[in-house]
Amino acid sequence: MSESTSALTSAQLHAELDQVFDEVLTQLTDLVAIPSVAWPSFNPSNVRSSAEAVAGLARGLGLDVDILHASQPDGTDGYPAVVASVPAPEGAPTVLLYAHHDVQPPGKPEAWNTEPFVATRVGDRLYGRGAADDKAGIMVHLTALRLLADRLGVGVTLFFEGEEEAGSPSFRNFLETYQDRLSADVIVVADSGNWAAGVPALTTSLRGMCAVEFEVTTLDHAVHSGMYGGIVPDAMLAMTRVLATLHNDDGSVAVAGLKSETHSEIDYDEATIRTDSGVLESTALIGSGSLASRLWTQPSVTVIGLDIPDVDVSSNTLQSSLRAKLSIRLAPGDTPENAVRAVEAHLRENLPFGASLRIGDTEGGSPWQADLADPVVKTARQALTDAWGTESVTMGIGGSIPFIADLLDVFPQASILVTGVEDPDARAHSANESLYLPDFKAAIVAEALLLQRLADDNS
User: Fold this and answer.
1) For the domain with range 208-263+287-365, which CATH number is right: 3.40.1180.10, 3.10.180.10, 3.30.70.360, 3.20.20.70?
2) Fewest 10 Å CB contacts: which of 110, 179, 351, 438?
3) Averaged over 130-135, what is the pLDDT?
4) Quick check: pTM over 0.85?
5) Band of the pLDDT at 288, cuts 50, 70, 90?
6) What sign does the dihedral 142-146-147-151 (CA atoms) show?
7) Alpha helix locations (H) across 313-436?
């Protein structure tokens, strides 16, 4: 680096950002205008256009940029990712900055108050699909590099994926194919959120997930309910009985063998949970322990599919077999393999009437827990605190980012930081997705401070 970055302060970086922020918003607006949905039913050329636009912004910073692909499990090419790099100075660490340029489908147009792919500013919020998730993450990375410019004292690799919202099918193969280019000492995943608008957070735990399909059979063929009802157990009766055993009376998970932790350092306000989730006033919340632990460090089991006749076409028939699908969220410390075994054992032990059970397809992703003693974690938290001017917190996420496990497998030496720009009102994946602009600015400054301090720690 051409000058020491140690003199850089949050106030200085905020002032420098203010000088270019209108241009940054214009760049983000242009990215939001590209409907880069990486689903088979959408035009793939839009994802390519998005990759090219992002690559153009990176080249504008003087970076060495490539648009790359890797094969998906079925052998077809995955969607395009943007990879750019700045080599590390002698003895300095390399930081991998991850975000994704693909977005969720917009959903029903009538649910939006603005056009989904027209970034629209209303007060301190910028509305549009991808405005928060995750094109703002891309702009955080690019703008932090822009602020540091020739003061950058670490190596940086940008990795902007193009299929995260589609489940990242080529992600693991991409890491292995380009392992040498992506190798880093620190990985920053900018795809999470903050505790509240104006309150920064570092995400330090993620629940894992697995899905289990199973079929319950009691008869070798369907029969008339009038002829045999009351003596022959139908598959619906067996299915509802076994599903009811998955939870205790308070709604907490009753499956033995799943990991669980009921405490958390910070907690949600119940009124906020009710407002954000839309739960009816008359409906009680389920589970036990703190509200945060129920979302972050305890498992959940949800029936997400049940193959039964629709009411409109139902007949007086005892069903011979029924198929269901469970979604299980795993607490940090658990594994998908353990969860599948535990759920299968529970189903077999609680299946009534001697019914037959067949386990079908399963899938899963591992949970993750950060090492809170890692000095890089402490540096990141201080950078967040300084950039926001508010004490940062650590928090968990009830959802999953399964590719974190892939990053750890391929780069076991790396410290992983999960950051983001979303807040509880961002509505990522929903209609009226928005970005809270004060937090967006603070996130840019926080990342610049983090990169500065990682350089200083190794000087």
Assistant:
1) 3.30.70.360
2) 110
3) 98
4) yes
5) very high
6) positive
7) 336-350, 375-388, 403-410
Quote the tokens at residue 413. Answer: 């030496």
Query: Where do you find CATH 3.30.70.360 in the chain?
Result: 208-263+287-365
Distance, C-alpha 379 to centroid of its chain: 23
Q: What does the alpha-carbon distance between residue 83 and residue 148 come to, in Å, rounded to a whole number?
A: 19
Cα–Cα dist 446/381, whole Å:
9
pLDDT of residue 459: 66
Between CA 165 and CA 113 the distance in angstroms is 23
CA separation for the pair 140, 193 (Å, rounded): 13
Structure tokens at 247: 């939870």
All CATH 3.40.630.10 domain ranges in the chain, comma separated: 10-206+367-457
For the chain, give the mean pLDDT.
95
Long-range contact set of residues 383-387: C-beta below 8 Å, sequence gap at least 24: 383/446, 383/447, 383/449, 383/450, 383/453, 384/200, 384/201, 384/202, 384/419, 384/442, 384/446, 385/200, 386/10, 386/446, 386/449, 387/10, 387/13, 387/14, 387/200, 387/442, 387/443, 387/445, 387/446, 387/449
439/196 Cα distance (integer angstroms): 10
Residues 6+ apart with CB under 8 A from 397: 192, 193, 203, 205, 206, 207, 296, 418
Which stretch of DSSP H or E encloses residue 235?
Answer: helix 235-244
Low-confidence winner among 82-96, 145-159, 171-185, 251-265 (lowest mean pLDDT): 251-265
Q: Where are the alpha helices (DSSP H) in 33-70?
A: 44-59
The CATH fold assigned to 10-206+367-457 is: Aminopeptidase (3.40.630)
Residue that is written with structure tokens 């308070």 in the block: 250
106 in Cβ contact with 113 (< 8 Å): no
Q: Are strands 94-100 and 186-193 parallel, antiparallel or unpaired?
A: parallel
**Both tokens assigned to 123:** 């007060």
pLDDT in tens, 210-265: 999 999 999 999 999 999 999 999 999 999 999 999 999 999 999 999 999 888 88
Q: What is the pLDDT of residue 6?
A: 55
Determine how many CB atoms are found less than 10 A away from the CB of residue 334. Answer: 22
pLDDT at 311: 94
Q: Do 213 and 361 contact (CB within 8 A), yes or no?
A: yes
